[in-house]
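ok so for the tutorial part 2 we go from a plain amino acid sequence to predicted structure tokens. step 1 is just haveing the sequence, like this:
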Amino acid sequence: MRGERCLCHICEERLGKQLDEIPVLYRTLEGIIGVKPTSTGKSAAVEAPAPCNIDALNLTATGGIPDILVSWVTDWYDLLGWYQPQWGTAHDRVTTAAQRLRVNLPWAAERHPAAGDFAHEIAWLHSRAQRVIDGDTPRVPLGACECGGRITANPATLTARCSACFTQWRGPQLAELADAMRKPAIGAEAA
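step 2 — the prediction. this is what the tokens look like for a chain of 191 residues:
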């Protein structure tokens, strides 16, 4: 732990972006439920395929994104002594919970004893949702991240992601990433 904080500023910023994106990812997952890729024209499977995208269903059903976000809001509000919000539909729960977590993120980053667990769970949810949406496009290795993880790209979506810290790069950020990866590490040119 650095000083008094439970999460560093970089992790807090990344987590804030993920919380901002989760409602959009959730709406996308809702849109693909029931959509399953068709067969490739080869012989039919012995078992009939599920009538929907099971991975998307797992993230949107009981125990998925809505329940996980609400459980964190409940935890935070209990610690702060606040009344629990009214939740509404699953979609409303995701939007409301993500907003409330985002607004209170500075407090959690400074003081919540399980801030690291929260960051890991949100990063996992975000990454899993993105993977379900992206499909099975093979990822292309790009190199090492500053955190020590491996950066891979998805050519189908023109995105890159670190396997350890879950930082993502899109669009113009990819060009910045490429430039940064081409620059030698400090002290490497002297070697």
